[in-house]
Amino acid sequence: MSKDQAIGAGILAISVIMIVVYLWWLFFSEWSWWAIVLPVLVMVLAVLGIAGWIGYTMATTPPPKPLEEIPELSEVAESKDAGQSEAKPTEDKKEGS
């Protein structure tokens, strides 16, 4: 058995044990109310923590520079504008061919 397979078997065994413990805690323990409250609390705190982290990151990240201030992009934009301002002759398509 390889190392990865042994780790996978260990994770599987721990998961099965935790399922049995949780089901016992939920249905046969005198603290069954906590078996519902604690996982819900942990999930709500995780979601709110992630939302707070996203908000903090957005609030503290400086805005990007406008494209006009980046020399490479402004040169490309100017060359595209110059190319569009020149009128290109259009070819007349022959009907029926």
Radius of gyration: 31 Å
Q: Any idea how many domains?
A: 2
Give me the number of helical elements. Answer: 3
Kindly state the percentage of residues in helix. over 70%
Number of strands: 0
How would you name the oligomeric state of the polypeptide chains in this document?
A: single chain
Estimate the strand proportion.
Answer: under 5%
The unreliable regions are none
Element pattern in H and E: HHH
Main sheet properties: none
Whole-number mean pLDDT? 84
Shape: elongated
Structural class from helices and strands? mainly alpha
Q: Separation of termini?
A: 71 Å
Write up this protein.
By secondary structure, this protein is an all-alpha fold. The protein folds into 2 domains: 1-30; 33-85. It contains 3 helices and no strands. The longest helix is centred in the middle third of the chain and has 29 residues, at 32-60. The mean pLDDT is 84.
Question: What features would you highlight for this structure?
Answer:
0% strand; 3 helices; elongated; 2 domains; 72% helix; mainly alpha; 97 residues
Q: Quick summary of this structure?
A:
It is built from 3 helices and no strands.
Can you lay out the helices and strands and say which pair or pack?
Layout: H1 3-28, H2 32-60, H3 71-85
Helix pairs in contact: 1-2
